[in-house]
Amino acid sequence: MSRPDDPHVEILTDSTGLREFYRDAPFGVRANMIFSADGAAAFAGRAGPLSCPADQRLLVELRGYADVVLVGAGTARAEGYGPARLSEQQRAERAAEGRSPLPRIAVVSRTGRLPESLFTDPRQRPILITSAHAARRYGLRPDSRHEVVLAGDESVDLRAAVETLTDAGMGRILCEGGPTLLNDMVTAGLLKELCVTTAPKLAGTQPVGAATISTLLTPGALSLRHVLVHEQFLFSRYALAG
């Protein structure tokens, strides 16, 4: 049911309706994050305690529209990331569009430490994105378990990483955080769209990651696409203004 005084707001009684509001995935980086009502991105080191079934459904739906899922190594380890899983309907839609059956999982890491849960399906090799310095220091190289992408010399250059993924046919990139990777994406000016779930929960101060202070001179402007309400959770979608 839409509110006539605000076309951006819609109340959903069924979370299955979420997917149609996100179908037109942008070419570039779309980020998806969850925050508590008081601004925490995690609780006890994980985003899971803030989430709900509708938020989990949205995560899977957004993956269905992406060519690759990009995540920081800390988040991948904390959340126990594994190979992507999609429904038969999602797979059929992707096949009809001439796309790969599943999105790749790409992990940004300074050390190459990936969770073992990512290697449970040998048919889905994760992509490790790291720097040339880290590759030399930790002996990181492609093997039967994962692909390695070098982006940057001393530290990971996200712009180079995005260009490499795009050149490889993975132009629709879903960034799932955590906060450190989101901060780096924003600072690098790479974000095209931001999807935010606001949980009706209080989490207090919850330090997550090791993000540095942003170098932005002014806050970046966003344009609101919609706000969906389902069981007191807010699902907001913003596009880069202009």
UniProtKB/TrEMBL annotation:
The reply to whether NADP figures as a keyword in the UniProt entry is: yes
> What Pfam families does its record include?
RibD_C
Q: Does the keyword NADP apply?
A: yes
Which residue range or ranges hold the Bacterial bifunctional deaminase-reductase C-terminal domain? 29-206
Give an example GO molecular function: 5-amino-6-(5-phosphoribosylamino)uracil reductase activity
Q: Which UniProt keywords apply?
A: NADP, Oxidoreductase
Q: What is the protein's given name?
A: Bacterial bifunctional deaminase-reductase C-terminal domain-containing protein
Q: Which organism is it from?
A: Mycolicibacterium confluentis
